[in-house]
Fold:
Amino acid sequence: MTDLQERAVPVSTAGDPRPPRVRVPAPLRSIVKHTGLSLLALIMLYPVIWMVVSSLRPNNEIFRSPGIVLDSLQVANYSDGWNALAAPFGHYLLNSAIVVLACIIGNLVSCSMAAYAFARLDFTGKKLFFATMLGTIMLPIHVIIVPQYILFSQLGWVNTFLPLIVPKLLATDAFFVFLMVQFIRGLPRELDEAARIDGAGHPRIFLRVILPLMLPALATTTIFTFIWTWNDFFSQLIYLTDPEMYTVPVALRSFVDSTVATSWGSMFAMSVVSLLPVFLAFLIGQRYLIKGIATTGIK
Amino acid sequence: MSALEKFQRLGTTRSGPRRKRDNKAAYLFLLPWFAGLTVITAGPVVASFVLGFTDYNLIQAPEFNGLENVNRMLSDERLHRALGVTFLYVFVSVPLQLAAALGLAMLLDRGLRGLAFYRSAFYLPSLLGSSVAIAVLWRQIFGAEGLLNQVLDVVGITGRGWISDPDTALSTLIVLNVWTFGAPMVIFLAGLRQIPAMYYEAAAVDGANRWTQFRRITLPLLSPIIFFNLVLQIIHAFQSFTQAFVVSGGTGGPSDSTLFYTLYLYQRGFNNFDMGYASALAWLLLLIIAAFTAVNFWAAKRWVFYDD
Amino acid sequence: MHAGTTRRSVLSLAVGTAAAAALAACGDSGGDASDEISTDPVTLRFTWWGSDARHKRTQQVIDLFTKAHPNVTVKGEFKEWNGYWDSLATTVAANDAPDIIQMDELYLSSYAERGALLDLGTATKHLSTADFDAGALETGKVGGKQYAIPTGLAAYAIVANTDLLAEYKIALPDDSTWTWDDLKNLGAQVSRASGGKVHGIQSWGFDTGGVNIWARQAGATLYGDNGDVAIPPAVLAGFWQYLLDLAKQGIAPPPSVTVERAGAALDQSGSATNTAAFGTWWNTQLPSVAEASGQNLKLLRLPGEKAAAPAAYYKPSMFWSVSARSKHPAEAALLVNFLANTAEAGDILLTDRGVPANTKVRAAITPKLTAGDQAAAEYLAALKVGPPPRVTPKGASGIEAILKRHSEAVLFERQTPRQAAAAFIKELQAEIDAA
Structure:
């Protein structure tokens, strides 16, 4: 983690416009702050650490030995877990990666377009459409899934990735549309005006002015789409019937069946493996998160 | 008039005394969304509405039963229980989670050593999502032999099985929700980064202290993002399902103390082959959430600041 | 105008979806179960729940089958328990159900009575049931029709940790004569001797086995023949009173621990973590519990059994069934036949889906079993059983959730056993009536 710290400091201090406070001696304040934050981080991380430790324990010790002290190392959990299901676990990682990548592209393109219209353009039915958009995320998926399955099975899309990807290409994820609307509305209007006076039309303003400035929102969308799609269980369970098509969350659950014994060691090992890509995605993504307007220097 | 000129005129939103409408450009930008709405979303949504007036066991064809499902809601004790649990959960967990997320986002936005580490550490729990591991992990903390009780034991307090005691089970789920404050935190962080540095520089020149800067600059400029998080977290909390499902094994137990609305709806629909009633329940939930969202939007006029 | 077209297409789609749902519900199958086996390429979808070990075994059997029938492709679709039922309900609703369906006793009537399953009586040309015990076959019948073939059998049992009993110098009881009071006393001795570290008994009341046996010992049944709830409230109240006493007297762990373990996986139970000397289990779970525990465990018959009228019974651990809308019912029946009747399949599956209900297969595999599996099989063979209870009626598939909720209410003393009994019967009956 030291590498991380060193890399992060210049990025964030460069962008920090605020002068330090002077009342309390700086070193003391810093110690208090770091102690507090470290303690909090430890609490936040305890379950994750426990999971990593458990992935290295023999199966029958996981629930018998408490705490996070490791007294014997069972690395075989990783190889066992990797090969436990119909295909090597890498197969499911690849499937998930395909779905995630397509969903990210879909969300970035379609949601930003819709958001630009809602945030910057004035058109007939705007309020109604906006309310409709918000309304579509208010129904729980469990009553939508059956009619939707019927629809997709009529289209012959069941057991393909299409039911997972196409909706994202068509901006059905209102969460991100709304998120981007809020970000765009937070951008100064003068920027569009200036571009317009220079003769730019909407496509150009959108591509050249708005998109670069909403980099934090796009990064947020990317990170969240990655994580949520990576973890989404229900729709992947329903639409992917052939084990060849299974994604990580569906495969992970195949380790656990409440009616029989579970290979906990393998399950935790593969949970750790499947956590790595999302964590990496976050580490990379967060660097763009903090490159907002404040750091790009636009005034 | 050339096509180019026409296109440029579409973009002159604010130039005239009266705003000109940008219908063409807007519908063009909204094209994917319209397609999604009509092809993918609308059918199932309308179908679920229609099914709300039927008796539908998923296997045989649905049969219309008028307002029977609405009648059932009035006398359904478990539904009333689920409403109580859900409202309590929304009112307690949303403010707590947002406060934690905003506070830490503010703290982590500043030039702090190890910033990336903290940010990642605080976000890591949110990455676990609905992973099956969550149920097991949560038991390691709040179970009868979990971490919390081990700590309490050292101080001489006898704990209890927090997850399995009906008096405390809901509280552990609230903690679980607050624990995953990473998502709104990231959105706040992104929002904070959009506030132009010049505002703070100007304020510092004027001698404003941190608190004044927070109240006068950060809060108003961040208000669209705070509003977004508030609206979405409320919707999200009303629909809370996965964590309760995973931790209680789908039962909403012990003794229905964590019977979230959507969990009950799911049980009716899938466990009891009662999809007609479940659909009606879904539309009741939609009405409730829509009411809350409408109030939120109405109230927003007073405190959310847009630059347009 | 945009809005107009939008509204119209929305409506047509909604109507289309509703029509599809209706169509899906009355769709017809493409073949007849008594047809000749096709020589053209046929694809069968075969779905089951379970964990990774079962997936591997089942895939091996599928490979054997397709080797013998090269024109048939079998696609295995495996899920874990909860996801399995969500997925099955959705696919059945969309007329897209897999051909061969692993079925559970709780859901059998709900699917069969609504016409989702094929009457296997029409498939006798390809599917033989001759080697099955008649009583076992009976469990797969709904309304006199054979909708499902039991894969294996299980019986309710007490698992005793003999290492713990030896440690506390407590003699193993004689399970042919012991009573519920004996169990309570033994449990109390363990709790006392261990100083609270180990509890005598792991409480139950979260699955139907315990209630069924309790009712049958009292000369009653959970369901009457007509499918209504038939257990007398006083009997049910007695069941909960017993469990409440165990908890209150420290013989079983405090309620919150009991409830926590009941909701957790098998590996986290009192029996598996050696923190309870006695616990109720299905006999087939013994090897898993023993592996997690690492100590010596023994299956005992339940207390209170009378030789003249045994309350114990064979529970079908799960079933094979075929979708009523399968396009290839004959081939599907052939696969079920392969799974249920052949020694090749039995050799691979062993007792993974219960001790085989097919007596020939059972005899063939018994020498190949591990010690734990053999102990489970021997227990089943030696047990004196009464006729099986009525299959769970349509609408009552959620009984375990209702039972669990009321057990919790009793243990946490939110309801007295009497109140819980009345409320339980009322709620379960209402579910049955509404279905």
